[in-house]
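Sorry, I am new here, but would you mind making up a protein's amino acid sequence and the tokens describing how it folds?
***
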Amino acid sequence: MLLLAAIGGCGFQHGQFVGDAAPHDIDTDSAVDAMIDAAAPPFCAPNDPHLRLCFSFDQVPFTPMLANEGAANVSATLTNVTRIPVGTGSGGAAQLGATSEIFVPYSADVSAIRTIEVWYRYDSEPTSNGARMGLVDSNVIPPNISLFFYRADPTHQLRCGLGNATVTWDAPLMAGTWLRLSCVCDADHMKMFVDGMMVGDTPGDCAAGGAFVSPDGFVIGANNNGGSADVTEPLLGAIDGIRLWDMPVLPAQF
């Protein structure tokens, strides 16, 4: 099982790696940067058959279609999506607005998904109490893959769907801040993590995993109501990366 862990007292964020080496360990900032770049694994691990879907959004420049960096043979169509730099080096993210869309057509090659991981930032709150924005969605029909965040004054909620299970949890979220969300089906339990910290653990019928709903496909950064022509509740913010595994991947706590 892949375990995303802190390395040597450092905290990893996609697009940025912050070290805490003592002055006597490394002589220059450039040497620190070189050591960190060498140590950091690629966001989309090549040749990992369990990583079915992965988009790092690090490509320069974006093209209208981005090939999946995971194992499944699919591509995403980008509409009104802007690349922004994140961190140092080649790190990038997809900036999304009210008319943006990232759509992946239906494929049976993305199935048995048991982990959703999204690194994102939202720049404004949903419009009213109870409103939401979509992060990933293959439509609500089982075996769905979906992740939304809600405004639930005075806090927020996260709703994740995998297979036949859909669960909602209260969660600490903050606008303008990069957040790492992991929703994991682990032994018939739905588990939700924010920045590596568990915010919920609920029994659920998720063991068979989620899949793209036919023929609706998969939307990143919005709600999928039935394919690319009916997308609502867009994320007003940015996505730094997304990963879907066909196995449970539990994040190490920061």
Remarks:
- The helical segments are 29-39.
